[in-house]
Design goal:
Layout (H helix, E strand, L loop, with lengths): L1 E13 L2 E14 L3 E5 L6 H8 L7 E6 L2 E2 L5 H11 E4 L11 H11 L8 H10 L15 H13 L5 E5 L7 H16 L6 E5 L3 H5 L3 E6 L2 E7 L5
Helix pairs in contact: 3-4, 3-5, 4-5, 5-6
Bound molecules: adenosine-5'-triphosphate.
Adenosine-5'-triphosphate binds next to β1, β2 and α1.
Pfam families: ABC_tran (PF00005)
InterPro entries: AAA+_ATPase (IPR003593), ABC_transporter-like_ATP-bd (IPR003439), ABC_transporter-like_CS (IPR017871), MacB-like_ATP-bd (IPR017911), P-loop_NTPase (IPR027417)
Family: Belongs to the ABC transporter superfamily.
Length: 232
C-alpha cells in the first residue's frame, strides 16, 4: 500500500482573500508505517487528512492511492473509496449513543448496505482484538473514554481498510489511556506487513514522537519529515 502526493495545493477563498491551506505538498506514505502529522494551528493538518481520506479534493496536484488517482473522484466514487479504503478515528469518538459497542463496530457494514446482524461475528472478533470482548453489549455511555476510543478503533478496522486516519485520537484522553491507544494504533499499523498505514494528526508532540515518522506542516508546506531512529 502506497500513497503518493505530488504538488498538492488546496486553497480556500473567504471573502476576497485566498488561503493556501496546502501549498505544494510532495509526499510518499508506505504501508506498515504509523505516521504522525504535527504543526501549529492553521498549518494545514486537517486539510491534509481530509484529502488523504477523500473527504475533500485538491485544487491541483495528484494523490495516488495504490497507483489509483483519487484527487478528482466524483461524489459516488469518493464515498465508495472512503467506505472501503479508509477507517476514520476522531477525537470525540463519534459513536452512536443508542447502539451497543458491537453494533457501533458493525456500522460501516450497515453503511455499505449489509445487515448489522451478519457483521456481528466480525464485530465481536474486532472488539476482542482491542481488548473489549466483555463490553460488546455496553452502550457508549456505559464505557470509559479509553474504551470508547477502542470501540472506534475496532469500527475503523471493520472493512479491513489499507488506510486508517486518526484526528487527535488521544486529545480527549488522559495520558495513560492515550498511551494505550497509541500502542493499539501502532499494532494496527504494523500487524499486516506493508498493507496498512495509520496516519494521525496530533498536537501532542510526545505522542508523535512514539510514531515511526513525524511530518511537520507549517503554512501548508512540509517543514520537516523525520523517521524515528528505531525504525529507519
Ligand atoms: N473550510 C474552510 N474555509 C476556509 N478556510 C479554511 C477552511 N478550512 C481550513 N481553512 C483555512 O486553511 C488553513 C489550514 O487549516 P487546517 O484546518 O487544515 O489547519 P490545522 O493545522 O488542522 O489547524 P488546527 O490545528 O487548528 O486544527 C487555515 O488558515 C484555515 O483557516
Amino acid at each position: 500500500m502506497t500513497i503518493e502526493l505530488s504538488d498538492v495545493v488546496r486553497e480556500y477563498r473567504v471573502g476576497g482573500q485566498r488561503v493556501r491551506a496546502l501549498d505544494g505538498v510532495n509526499l510518499h506514505i508506505d504501508g506498515g508505517n504509523f505516521v504522525s502529522v504535527v504543526g501549529p494551528s492553521g498549518a494545514g493538518k486537517s486539510t491534509f487528512l481530509h484529502l488523504l481520506g477523500a473527504l475533500d479534493s485538491p485544487d491541483s496536484g495528484s494523490i495516488k492511492f495504490g497507483g489509483r488517482e483519487i484527487a478528482n473522484l466524483g461524489d459516488d466514487e469518493q464515498s465508495e473509496f472512503r467506505r472501503h479504503k479508509v477507517g476514520f478515528i476522531f477525537q470525540f469518538f463519534n459513536l452512536l449513543p443508542t447502539m451497543s459497542a458491537w453494533e457501533n463496530v458493525a456500522v460501516p457494514k450497515l453503511v455499505d448496505g449489509q445487515p448489522l446482524k451478519k457483521a456481528k461475528p466480525d464485530a465481536l472478533r474486532l472488539l476482542g482484538l482491542v481488548g473489549l470482548a466483555d463490553r460488546a453489549e455496553h452502550r457508549p455511555s456505559e464505557l470509559s473514554g479509553g474504551q470508547m476510543q477502542r470501540v472506534a478503533v475496532a469500527r475503523a478496522l471493520m472493512m479491513d481498510p489499507p488506510l486508517i486516519l486518526a484526528d487527535e485520537p488521544t486529545g480527549n484522553l488522559d495520558s495513560k489511556t492515550g498511551t494505550a491507544i497509541m500502542e493499539l494504533l501502532a499494532d494496527v499499523a504494523h500487524e499486516r506487513g506493508t498493507s496498512r498505514a495509520v496516519v494521525m494528526v496530533t498536537h501532542n508532540l510526545e505522542a508523535a514522537a512514539a510514531t515511526d515518522r513525524v511530518i511537520t506542516l507549517q503554512d501548508g508546506k512540509i517543514e520537516s519529515d523525520e523517521y524515528s531512529s528505531a525504525r529507519s
